[in-house]
Amino acid sequence: NAGVTQTPKFQVLKTGQSMTLQCAQDMNHNSMYWYRQDPGMGLRLIYYSASEGTTDKGEVPNGYNVSRLNKREFSLRLESAAPSQTSVYFCASTRSHGGTEAFFGQGTRLTVV
Amino acid sequence: QKEVEQDPGPLSVPEGAIVSLNCTYSNSAFQYFMWYRQYSRKGPELLMYTYSSGNKEDGRFTAQVDKSSKYISLFIRDSQPSDSATYLCAMSDTGNTPLVFGKGTRLSVIA
Lengths: 113, 111
Description:
heterodimer; A: mainly beta; 4-stranded antiparallel beta sheet; globular
C-alpha cells in the first residue's frame, strides 16, 4: 500500500534551471494538491486539482505550473527556478475535494542555489 | 489576519505531562476540524477530526471545538517521547474548498 509517492526525494538546482516534481497516488482519490512548507510559514497551497481534468491556483502559485496527467498523477513544474523556491514540497490527495483526510507523500527537499 | 492562527512554539514538556495545543480561526463557515501530526522529515498524517462543535476522544488524545469562540484544542494526556512532533490544525467548510492549515506547533516531550 504505497499511498502517495513523490519523486525525487532530494534535488539541488541552479538558478534558472527547470524541473518537474512527480506525484502519484494509488487510492483512487479524486483530488490532489501541491503544498510547500517553509520554516515559520506552515503548509502553503500552490496548486490543486479538484478532479481529473481541472486545476486551480492556491495561495502561492507564482513560478509554478501543474499538470493532472490522469487520475493517479499530478506533477508540479518549476520553469525557471529561483532561490526563493528552496523549500520542502508535499503532494497530497483526498477522496473528494475538501475531504477531511488528506494523505501526504514523503516530501521533496529542493534547494536552489 | 490569516484564516487560521496557531502558536508555532516550540513547546517542551516532561514525559507524563498534559499537553494543550490550540488554534483560532476567523471563518465561521468552517465545519470540519482536524489535527495532523508530522514527524521530522515526514509528511503530515491525520490524527483526529471533529465535525462542528464538541469533544472527541481517542486514547490519550482529545479534540475540542468551540465554534462560538472560533477556537479548537488538542489535549494529549500522559505525553510520551514518541509524541514529539509538529502538530498542525486544519479546517474545511462544506467540502468545496481545500483544507486550510495552521502553521503547526512543534512539541518535544522530554524523557
